[in-house]
Fold Copper oxidase.
Amino acid sequence: MTLSKFADELPIPPILQARWKDASHTYYEVRMTEFKQSLHSELNDTTVWGYEGSYPGPTIEVESGEKVFIKWINDLPDKHFLPIDHTVHGAELNKPEVRTVVHVHGASVESESDGYPDAWFTKGFKQVGPYFRKQIYRYDNYMRAVTLWYHDHTIGISRLNIYAGLAGFYLLRDQRERSLNLPSGRYEVPLIIQDKTFNKDGSLYYPKQPDPPVPELETSIVPEFIGDTILVNGKVWPYLNVEPRKYRFRLLNASNTRFYRLKLDSGQLMYQIATDSGFMQHPIGVKEIMLGVAERAEVIIDFSNLAGKNIIMTNDAPAPFPTGDPTNENTGTVMQFRVTLPLSSVDTSVIPAYMVPFVPVKEESASKIRYLTLNDNMDKYGREFMLLDNKQWDAPITENPKLGATEIWYLINLTTDSHPIHIHLIDFQILDRRNFDVEKYNKEKVIHYTGPAMPPEPQERGGKDTVRANPNQVTRIIMKFGPYTGLYVWHCHIMEHEDYEMMRPFIVIR
């Protein structure tokens, strides 16, 4: 199926309005429903799921330190429109088919409000998972200005729920951000990038079987999902009309498996100002931005001397990353910027020389070092599945950091994929990556390095909550656990991996 590129304008998700707001707290209600939406003008309207009748969901914008309460309401039908594999842990036949739980990705929240995968609930809270504790989640939002996102996190089916449309931006603002004089208002644009595949009738395609199929099963999980069409903010290959001035873009990879290496075909620099966890110390001019699943970056693009020009944002990351298929003219195209609008006023916004201090966490401050492997396994149906530290979701908890303790985790990747590893509750800093001998490790359980330690890429030098752990490398990260105690998770953010055992609970103890 060939759809025209740049046929539809980029939609901007609406800002969610609070139900109640006073000096002490803010209250939102967010409904999840099924509806039809136009994802491309040449396609029939597509059945999707969304928050508040919108795919992607509305942007939730809060102030740093604002106490926010959100009631996430499941108003979805009882039947899923995507294929469920009931052999996947958490999605057994005795569980309701449609279940949801919401995680604000990158937020530091009490564990009962974190969206634990087993804290799911059905329509009207009729049935709830074993770890369900409350209907109304609390977010204290004490983080600095940052681009976060909210999405489904239900055990065993989050890949399907997110693919169906359950994702949106969650932004924190603060005084420091306002003082930087960045492009703002209509010159600040969130971009949520995803890949999908469509059936001829415009409906979403998601495979029922891997290749080759599993004959014993009617529906089987697939090792990864790679779509053939790129969407931004829920539109296929959209265009955005811009003025010849500076714009701030918040980039989010919300795909199931696909990584993006984003460039502008004009060859110009993008000025990166933020990582997953907020502003960097100094902006950096980059020709390309690499985003694993769930990673974010904020960039300023300057269109000032480009009036009348069209600029295409392209992608050249193989899928799956790094050894999969190269992109083609469809998957290599993201969106188009048309510098066609007249300048409405003089552009006084700036690319600041300095934003916030970045204080590296000292390795000496770590009280614990953990060596954690990323493993490849086969199940009884001959399907590949990935594990963290070679343990399944239900194995006893082995990561139990103390409140306030600093730890270094060595992520030892024994697989051939790059895995975006996300840790809930905290942000971390990347110390380095280092090549090692995988064969020797598998035989002798010894890390034999084959090259020098490589510092994080310039675009990763800041707070992170998701890190690309590359094949044949040990990736070291350092973090301090807190300010809450309780039960959280860490996992690979390739949705198909996370749903099939590549996720582990951890508990922060007093």
Observations:
- The radius of gyration is 22 Å.
- Residues 185-338 form a domain with the Immunoglobulin-like fold (CATH 2.60.40.420).
